[in-house]
Hints:
By secondary structure, the protein is α+β, with helices and mostly antiparallel strands. The chain contains three helices and 15 strands. The chain folds into two domains: 4-87, Beta Barrel (Elongation Factor Tu (Ef-tu), domain 3); 92-235, 2-Layer Sandwich (Threonyl-tRNA Synthetase, Chain A, domain 2), CATH 3.30.980.10.
Amino acid sequence: METRLLYPTDAYLRTFEATVVAVEGSAVALDATAFYPGGGGQPPDEGILTDGRQVWVVRAVRRQGPWVWHTVEGEPPAVGQRVRGEIDWERRYALMRTHTALHILCGVVWRDYRAKVTGGNMEPLRGRMDFEFETLTGDRVREIEAKINAEVAAARPVRVYFLPREEADRHPDLIRTKVNLLPPDLQVVRVVEIEGLDLQADGGTHVANTREVGRIRIVDYKSKGKINKRIEIAIEC
């Protein structure tokens, strides 16, 4: 048995029902969850659990083995207890917009400059991505900013689907990072596609259309090594 993950197929799910299956200290494992546990540079979700009488604030979420653990404030609910989970939607949606913006950036840079990703991170409405650029000038940065905002305005649909590992391994462009980060025992690969622009193996949450991202600003760029350049972005509210 393992936690059934709800966010991979419905990133817009804000509430869900679940049963507590294990308790360790102040953390509870649920049989199902819409909380994203973090990974790929995207931080974990926040929110609450409630049984209708008591409310537990979720302060941390992590995936460990077959379970997703939700660390709560106060005495946790007991094994067997039914709870309703509620995602902090404003924060989650900001992360969905940010994550999709980074995919747009990655897609444009790969399409036009064939530069692979060497690292990345994000917080709500801000993020950064490192690329294998030997040089990165102000003119090129302004060019990239114009191109990524053109992709936002193009209102491209964003789709999620799943491929068997064998099939995914036949598509090397699914991995845009310099190092393949897919676990060797992963048998099914989740793919996020921005139609006509980007196709990547990815486990995070995204908006359904690029127009939901809003205007992207490149707020800084810097060298992080001989062939490693960082681009930092912010999303307008």
